[in-house]
Every structure is written in structure tokens, then in C-alpha cells.
Amino acid sequence: MNYTGYELALLFLVYSFLGWIIETVVTSLKKKKFVNRGFFNGPFCFIYGFSAVIMTVVLWELKGQLVFLFLGCAILATAVEWFTGKLLERMNRHKWWDYSNKKWNFDGYICLQYSVIWGLLGVLAMEFSNGFFIGIFDLLPVFIRRLILWIFIIAAILDGVASFAAVFHIKKGMCTIYRWNSHVDKWTYRLGTWIFGHVEKRMVKAYPVIEEEAEPVEKEGKFAEGCGFYKIFWLFFIGAFLGDIVETIFCRFTMGYWMSRSSLVWGPFSIVWGLAVALATVLLYKDREKPDRHIFLVGTFLGGAYEYICSVFTEIVFGKIFWDYSHLPFNLGGRINLLFCFFWGMAAVVWIKILYPKISGLIERVPKKPGHIVTWIAVVFMVVNMAVSMLALIRYDSRDKGVAAQHSWEQIMDDHFDDAKMERIYPNAKEK
């Protein structure tokens, strides 16, 4: 993957704009009037840009393999679409789009025909249009193209602030704040209310569900009740611990010897499993009463996409390959395989239907005040643990390349996490 950060930013903005054109044209033709379909107020639909960048970063090694590239783009973009829909539903407690009337739909957020379109668009982008857009971009002087990108990025960030504010209906809160200010600040107040009013009207036209009465929010009576921050953090913590234990025992029985499966330098924690448990809970919490096959399919496809992305991310950031399934049948680049994707599906069913209710109940038994204190101690520990682990892995890779320690933090890593210790913690890590 040879794209620079500026080139990826360009692709993100270009495909967001093209996605906005597609969504706006299709919706306007259906309703026979112009409708700005994007979530943001400007001409951008960022789900397209985000999907294009993820495809470019994650699936670069599949270029030229059209069948696998098509499947990878279709699955990855479909996962992004479903994930985005679920997050927006958690924000507003309504579906922002609904494909329930289409054949072969799943959960109303994704359907087969759009997944096929995603796959075709992804192949077109990866094989042809990425190079075309970057080639045009490179014709501009370096200063000019970077200036243009920063202007659009800053505009998009400001637009995003206004759009999210409209979704959360914080205009009233801003009005109260502005009334405390002097007479001069009334112009700021008027400008703020005009901006939020304009954005809300535009978003209501595109997504009428914003104005519909939402379901009541679950209030926290016990510690970590519902599906809030405290519950999700402890599920992440417990999932990371149990995931490491399960993988260690699995490797012992399948390979015949004990081997560390931890992601961190301190403690038996597998971040991949912890994040998977947290994300599965957030996304499937409202679907926990649905049939097992529903949970299994979601777990299979999203688990496979998640594991593939984690594999590419760790390889790019740390320069190491932490697992390789090339020896297993039906694998994709050695990063995922069909059997383990099924395991993700089964794990999702076991987690949501069996383990989650029991573990959730145990977490809620913790007294409120001690629970909050212990949670923040654990948060600090995990943040520091992940930061030190990342520095140790970066230094581990640098030592493999013969780079001597030049800074104090590098010397600290060399003293406390030498090659022998890192090989014990990460026995499967190898050069890419």
C-alpha cells in the first residue's frame, strides 16, 4: 500500500462527493424534487468516502484478483453500511434507511442488490479510478493541492459539528448559553440558531425519522445498567481476558504446547477479542431477542471483516504478521478463513444469547460508587498498557531492522522489553 495520507484524504473527499451525487440524484428522481441526501449539510456522503479508503488500505493486496477483490469490497462495504446504520440508530433510536421491502435484505440496513453494487463500485475504484484521481491530483503544485485538501477537511469538520448538533437537538442548550452573554453576542446567538435551524430543516427533509418520537432512553439505576459506557468497558475488559484464555487453551489442544496469545505486554488480554465483544454488544444489543440464525450471520460476516481489517492494520502499523492461515483451506490472503468466520458466528450467538445476560447481571451487582472508582482505575491501566505495548512493538520492529535507539523511550523499551521477552509475548509475530 503506497498511498500517502494526503492521497487517502483526497480519495476520501472525492468518493464522498461522488457518493453524495449518486444518493441525491436517485432520491431526487424518486421524490421528483431535489433532496440533499447526505448526512452532512455539504455535498458529501462520507460513508462512500470511508468505505473507499478502507477498501484501498485493507484490500490493496487483492488488486488484479477480480473475483476476490469483488467479494472483499462487497463484504467490507456492506459491513460498513450495516455498522453505520446501527450507530445512527443508537444515536437517534430510529432507522435512517430501511431496505425491508427489498428481496434478500438483512435487518433492513443491507440487501443483496446493494452489496453487489458495492462490490462492483469497489472493483472500479481499486482497479481504475484511484489511479486516475491521484494522477490528476499530482498535476497540481504540492502547496496548492495540500491547501485545497485542508480547506475541504476543515469545512467538513465544521459541517460535521453542525450536523451532529442538529441530530442531538442541542440548539436549545446553545440558546440558553447565548442568553447569558452581552448585547453584542446576540448576533452570535442569532447566527448560531440560524445555522442549526437551517441544518435541522435540511436533515428532516432527507431523513424524516429525526422528528419522530424516539423510544425512551434506559436510565441507569444500578451500576452499569443498560448498554452504556461502564457496561461496554467491562465487557471489553472481560472479553479481552476470556478471549486470551480461550485462545491459549485452544492452541494447547490443537498444537500440543502452551503459547502466549496476549495482545499486551502486561496481563493475559487479547484486544482483538475485547473489541469484538464490545462491538458485538453495541451492535447486537437491540437484536438480542432475534433468532439465532440472525446473530450467526451477522457474527460470521462482520467477524470475518473485522479480523481481516485487524490483520492489515497490525501489519501496516507494526510491520509484523501476527497470524497466518495460509495453511488452512478457504483462506483469504492468510488473514481469514471460512472455518474461523463460522467460529465468529457461533461465538456471537453464544455471547449474545448465553454469556451476555449472565455477565451483564454480574456487572450490575457491583455497588455504584466502588464500581465507578474501579472502572476508571482499570481504564487508566488499559490505556497505559496499550500505549506501552504499542511502543514496545514499534521498537521491536525497529530492532529487527537494525535501527539503534536514539531517544530515551526507545532505550527504556530496549531495557524492559528485549527481543527474548517480546518473542515470549508475541511468538507468532513475524516479518511481513
Overview of this protein structure:
- This protein is mainly alpha-helical.
- Helix content is 68%, strand content 3%.
- The chain is built from 14 helices and 6 strands.
- The strands form 3 sheets. A two-stranded antiparallel ribbon has the order 1-2. A two-stranded antiparallel ribbon has the order 3-6. A two-stranded antiparallel sheet has the order 4-5.
- Strand 4 (331-332) and strand 5 (336-337) form a beta hairpin.
- Helix 5 (142-167) crosses helix 7.
- The longest helix is centred in the C-terminal third of the chain and has 33 residues, at 368-400.
- The model is unreliable at 170-185 (pLDDT under 50).
Radius of gyration: 24 Å
- Bin the strand percentage: under 5%
Widest β-sheet, arrangement of strands: 1-2
The overall pLDDT, averaged over residues, is 80
- Number of separate helices: 14
From the N-terminal CA to the C-terminal CA, the straight-line distance is 13 Å
Order of SSEs, N→C?
Answer: HHHEEHHHHHHHEEEHHHHE
Largest sheet: 2 strands, antiparallel
Structural class: mainly alpha
- Uncertain runs are 170-185
* Tertiary shape: globular
Secondary structure: number of strands: 6
Estimate percent helicity.
55-70%
